[in-house]
Each structure stands twice: as C-alpha cells, then as structure tokens.
From TrEMBL:
It comes from Streptomyces pacificus. The chain crosses the membrane at residues 293-314. This is HAD-IB family hydrolase. It holds the Pfam family HAD. Belongs to the HAD-like hydrolase superfamily. SerB family. The keyword Membrane applies. Gene3D superfamilies: HAD superfamily/HAD-like (3.40.50.1000), SG protein - dephosphorylation function (1.20.1440.100). It comes from the Bacteria. Keywords: Hydrolase, Magnesium, Membrane, Metal-binding, Transmembrane, Transmembrane helix. GO terms for molecular function: hydrolase activity; metal ion binding.
Amino acid sequence: MAALGWLTPRRRSSTARSVLAGEAAAEAARKTSQQFEEDARARTGAEADAEASPAEPAFPVAGDVGAAAFFDLDNTVMQGAAIFHFGRGLYKRKFFQRRELARFAWQQTWFRIAGVEDPEHMQDVRESALSIVKGHRVAELMSIGEEIYDEYMADRIWPGTRALAQAHLDAGQKVWLVTAAPVETATIIARRLGLTGALGTVAESVDGVYTGKLVGEPLHGPAKAEAVRALASAENLDLSRCAAYSDSHNDIPMLSLVGHPYAINPDTKLRKHARERDWRLRDYRTGRKAARVGIPAAAGVGALAGGTAAAVALHRRRR
C-alpha cells in the first residue's frame, strides 16, 4: 500500500477496492476463458464476412498476438443493460417480487438519467442486486443465465460491434468483454459470442453459494481499467497495441489505457472526449432506434418499462 500513501484515506480505500475488483475480475476471466477457448477457435469467418463493413480500416493487424481487444457490454455489444435482462429473467422465475423489480428499475434508471455515481446511490444498487442472489448456488444462476440469454439477450447484440470483435478474433487476437455485470452473466455472453472470456463484477461465494458480498467493488469506471491492466500483465499484452470499445464516458479510464480506443454508440460526454482526441467513433443507432436504446434501453424496455414508471411514481410520492 506504500504506493498509495499520497492519497487521502477515503481515496486510498476507493482505489484499493478498484484494484482488488480488477485483479479478482482478471483472475476469474483467465480461469473461465480456458473452458471455452476451443469454441472461439472453432468459429469460421463466414458470419463476420456477412456482417463486417467494407469501410472498416485495415485493423487489427493479423498475427499480432501481443494485442487484444476489450469490449464494454451494455449499449456497446448489446442493446440495453445485461443486468436488467438478467433481472427480468429472475423476476419471471419468481426470484423476487414486483416491488423489488420496481425499486431496482428506478435505481438503474436514475443512474442513467443523472449520469453521476453518487456513493450512497451506488451502495443501494449493490445491496439490492446482491440481496437477490444471496443464498443461491452459483451453478443454479449459471444454468438460469443460459436460458435468460436465449430469452432476452441473443437478439439484442449489435451486428456492427459483433463484426468488430470477430475481426480481432480472425486476426488471431483474444477478445474480452469488460463489464460491471456479474462475471457469470458476462462469461455466458462471451462464450455464446465465441469470444475469449469476460471481466465482470465478482460476487463472493463460499462452497458454491453466494454470500451477498462483493470482492472489491463493481467493475465500473476505474475498476475496469484496473482489470484490463491486470489481465494485460498476466497475458503479456502490449496495451499500446490493444483496442478498447465503449459507449460510456465512465469508461474513459479503460479507453485511455490502450493504443486504439473506439467510442461505440457514444454518450454525449464520450463523443466530445473522443472528438477532442481523434478517437475512432462508430454509431450503429439510427433515427428512432437511437432514441429507443437510450434511457428506455437502460430500463430494460418491454416488461421493465412498467416497473420503471411505477418506481418513478413511488419516488415522487416519497419526496
């Protein structure tokens, strides 16, 4: 901890949690990626050929195994937020009640609207999510996650971003998801897409049962950068030759680590930041579709829209 001596106690604690979360995510990602590495190698380039745009630059460089690509998940690879789609599936299976769904939807919608990370609010979000899985077996949630992917996530993958990821795979590089979503959910999505693995929030488990605690903190903002840095070190990657993709200004720390940052479907702050630094931009949203995948997408669309409205009304009554 000597290297953190210049920080205030509060900042030191926050930084330490980010490092812990990042290192835990990197360790979990390396373990799980080995389980489906053969699936990634088995994929052919046929799907990518059908989806890739001829306007894409000659990047990545084929055979550059010292490079890799890191993709944010929510609104970058997939329309909407993975945790909401997962929550919809758990609600359908009666893991929690309608009141909890409305509360969870309100918390996440407020975060998207406000665009800031209030410590008390983020703590409330963490506690809500962890209370849902506490006492359940990891294997049970993984099995359910497979079903939820088919029900709510498979048809929400952005073809353009998927093609970018496939280009890295075709070049012989590893491709990782980096997300605040639970690492189990992220791993399922990565495997289904034929990617190398996933860095995600690590929830503590004992004897295969969730304790309701996190290892470090959610993999968000600076913690994502720490996870990428830890994984790059373990994998002997040269970050100056790596690429990273995200839609959110919260991921600027991660994007700034690599030599090839991309803003994908960027929010206003990230778009401005990217233009100032000549980062590449890609926006796969058009017209009404772009509007639809903004705030409503974060609320889960469809079934969660009603829950969000109820949560907003509940919040107003409490004020």
